[in-house]
Design brief:
By secondary structure, this protein is mainly α. 70% of the residues lie in helices and 0% in strands. It folds into two domains: 31 residues; 85 residues, no CATH class.
């Protein structure tokens, strides 16, 4: 049987392919998000005038404070993200679907408890668990 015949065979039996066209976002969503972001920025810049009724704006100092706090959080999170990515890579190389099927229970409640136990073993925090979870989903873990 040729490739074309197998495709035609599906359509002759009343089966149709699912519609895989991308979902069109709402046309008002992007302008609304931009407007909301601009409103948030203006509220952050002019917040003192609104709350105190006057005074000077120290935008440069506020921006410096924002950058300092952002970089502090980012620098603290990077090692955990890196560790999570390394664990994810190790899972990709050394763990296959048959291993997951063999060692993890199929029922929901025991699977949840085994997932919690695995969470205790993996040395990653909530930052680094994202790559690990993504890799496990790719491996077929529910």
């Amino acid at each position: 049987m040729a490739k074309d015949e197998s495709v035609n065979d599906l359509t002759t039996h009343g089966l149709t392919a699912p519609d895989l066209s991308p979902i069109q976002p709402n046309r008002w969503l992007r302008p609304l998000l931009v407007f909301g972001l601009l409103l948030l920025i203006l509220a952050a810049i002019f917040g003192d005038i609104i709350t105190t009724g006057g005074g000077r704006l120290y935008v440069a100092q506020r921006f410096q404070t924002f950058v300092t706090i952002f970089l502090g959080i980012f620098i603290e999170a990077v090692p955990f993200l890196l560790l999570g990515s390394i664990v994810s890579g190790l899972l990709a190389v050394f763990v296959d679907q048959s291993m997951l099927d063999r060692y993890l229970p199929r029922r929901a409640l025991p699977a949840a408890f085994s997932g919690a136990a695995l969470g205790l073993l993996f040395p990653v925090c909530e930052c680094g668990v994202v790559p690990v979870t993504r890799r496990l989903y790719e491996k077929g873990l529910p």
